[in-house]
Amino acid sequence: MTAYDLVALGRVGVDLYPLQHGVTLDEVRSFEKFLGGSAANVTVAAARHGRRAALVSATADDAFGRFVHRELLQLGVDDAHVQTIAGGPPTPVTFCEVFPPDHFPIWFYRYPTAPDLLITADSIPLQAIREARVHWSTVTGLSQEPSRAAHVAAWQERGRAPLTVLDLDYRAVFWSDVDEARRQVREAVRNVTVAVGNTEECEVATGETDPERAARALLASGVELAVVKQGPRGVLAMTQDERVTVSAFPVDVVNGLGAGDAFGGALVHGLLEGWDLERILHFANVAGALVAGRLECSTAMPTTAEVQALLSDVEVADGAM
Questions:
Q1: Do the domain assignments include residue 20?
Q2: What pLDDT score was predicted for residue 1?
Q3: Residue 290: which CATH number?
Q4: Exposed, middle or buried by CB within 10 Å (0-12, 13-18, 19+), for 21?
Q5: Tell me: the pLDDT tens digits for 21-73?
Q6: CA angle 166-145-41, nearest 5°?
Q7: Which one, 102, 111, 198, 278, has the greatest CB density within 10 A?
């Protein structure tokens, strides 16, 4: 087999999202079930753009675990490296409330841990990670051992090869305290070539609240590309030689959760296509906006054609679709 375009390492589970919006969970009458988890969503997003993607993670040997494996395959993601751990914690579930346009409380049922945090350094596919064109990991995986050691082993195997990406997906609920998160994230950034996060996440990684200063701090730590997402203010990306800002794409928001993962999968696609940075950011912004206009995350990920249909004012290089 040829190398994967993308191997992502990290969180997977089941999203249970309410079908009644504008009410709290105690008033919700019905939910719909979807594949969830940031790393899983990014692989699905990349697969929707025709990329050969694999997830490295774990589930329990339970009904939700079986659902995760089935959905990954149906959505075009290789699940061969998603372990099934018997006798441990259940496959996690996540609930949210939906108060458009900008309030989406979320509850993670991952206590005291989750199968994807039990992956070990000797259980991950090091060759696949080393040979992948893009390796994607998230900050959540650094919050507990043995997952933290597995992430370090993956980075050591990569040796800071190009397109080793860290999603600065910081969720305070997964950490004992923010100072520990800062230490782990700042050390992790030194192992990657691309860092992606919103302004709060970049502040954890750099101590900087200003987007431009945060991007420069990430570059100073050795990152080659820093991407700072600013919500309705758009996105900033910087390399040592280039600074690009792109405005947000307007959308009637249904559920903002998952938009960042759609952005991530589209970013992977654009980087692999070799597009210029401005075009990548426009493409990724639209992909994120499309998901923000839908309830679910994984099954909402758009195809390349759907994104390009909203980018008629952006020139498309020959063969991009």
A1: yes
A2: 65
A3: 3.40.1190.20
A4: middle
A5: 999 999 999 999 999 999 999 999 999 999 999 999 999 999 999 999 999 99
A6: 40
A7: 198
